[in-house]
Amino acid sequence: MYKIAVIPGDGTGPEVINEGIKVLKSIGTKYGISFDFTKFDFGGTRYLKTGETLPDSALDDLRSFNAIYLGAIGHPDVKPGILETGILLKLRFGLDQYINLRPIKLYPNVETPLANKGPEDIDFMVVRENTEGLYIGSGGFLKKGSPDEVAIQEMVNTRKGVERCIRYAFELTRKRNKKKKLTLSAKTNVLIHAHDLWMRTFNEVAEEYPDIEADYAHVDATTMWMVKNPEWFDVIVTTNMFGDIITDLGAMIQGGMGIAAGGNINPEGVSMFEPIGGSAPKYTGQNVINPIAAIFAAQMMLSFLGEDEAAGALEKSAVKTISKMKSMGAGKMGYSTSEVGDMVSEGV
Ligand code: IPM
Ligand code: MN
To answer: Which CATH code fits 1-97+268-348?
Structure first.
């Protein structure tokens, strides 16, 4: 029996999470796994009502769960930054989810904007550092609003933080057992302090993994190769901000936000799984949003819980469902949100 905390969130978050739960319940029945879902209403709607984002006590509550299943946080009536830092980043940092794992995989029958590239070319994972870098919110203003204004935003990289992320990536590359190639994506030619630390740590840890090819690409070149030669990649490890950027590109080449999922992972603690697209408020309540990304997030959750057989069955059923869908885009699937969820549930 797994205790799952569910944060459906804003916009279309609740709709896609409902489908994910539907699929998890159906897979649970088939594989003898039971889930105890507990809902939390953190998000923009609650913030607008109460002024509260994520109370500290919530972090303690969440620590008692086996995993967290998150829909989307973001509300058009809330100023940018409040919900992101107050909820999403607070969860990632507070629960020390130091890995943001994002598979970039093109499934058959999914359209990619890359000409002449197919499922055999696009299959890699991005390991994004998730608790440091430019995301820590450190810095400030001087003479704000004046012509002499100074704005400082600090980037922090710790040896421990960098090393645990790089180690995770090497282990994952070994476990995947595909091309056995790990690419560090950074900017050592400009960020001569921070990324010197990344490069040195990467090279040191690489010594312990002689079976893995340790590769390096500057982040700008990475975006180029992701479009031109995505088949070169197996696992990419990168910093928080660069990972944020390249995984949106990754989501596009794998078929769009309707399909892209991610895990915020603390291998020693509580992890959180989410579709990486936003709350897509304009589609709210229309039963047209694609729930596949949320369903893949549920698959990642199962796999993280050690339920590999169930995770495999879920993936297979999702792939079968995808093969029947017209498109991955909202409103263009040929089915409604709940029909897609039904199809995956029935196929597991
Ligand atoms: C993501 C999102 C978040 C991030 C935002 C909403 C803070 O873009 O999960 O990639 O930048 O990490
Ligand atoms: Mn992002």
So the answer is: 3.40.718.10
CB 125 within 8 A of CB 172: yes
Ligand 1 touching residue 322 (CB < 6 A): no
Q: 1-97+268-348 and 112-254: same fold?
A: yes
User: What CA–CA distance (Å, rounded) separates 112 from 227?
Assistant: 10
Considering every ligand atom shown, identify the ligand nearest to the alpha carbon of residue 245 and give its number: 2
Contacts of 225 (CB under 8 A, 6+ apart): 217, 232, 233
112-254 is classed CATH 3.60.15.10: no
Contact 84 CB / ligand 1 (< 6 Å): yes
Among 70, 79, 89, residue to substitute to test ligand 1 (most atoms within 8 Å of Cβ): 89
Query: Domain extents for the chain?
Result: 1-97+268-348, 112-254
Supply the DSSP symbol for 171: H
Digit-by-digit pLDDT tens for the chain (348 residues) are 999 999 999 999 999 999 999 999 999 999 999 999 999 999 999 999 999 999 999 999 999 999 999 999 999 999 999 999 999 999 999 999 999 999 999 999 999 999 999 999 999 999 999 999 999 999 999 999 999 999 999 999 999 999 999 999 999 999 999 999 999 999 999 999 999 999 999 999 999 999 999 999 999 999 999 999 999 999 999 999 999 999 999 999 999 999 999 999 999 999 999 999 999 999 999 999 999 999 999 999 999 999 999 999 999 999 999 999 999 999 999 999 999 999 999 999
Strand, coil or helix: 295 = helix
Report the half-sphere exposure of 212 (CA within 13 A, side-chain side): 30
Q: With a threshold of 0.90, does the pTM exceed it?
A: yes
HSE value, Cβ hemisphere, 13 Å, CA-based, for 119: 6
Between the CA of 256 and the centroid of ligand 2 the distance, in Å, is: 13
Helix (H, G, I), strand (E, B) or coil at 268: coil
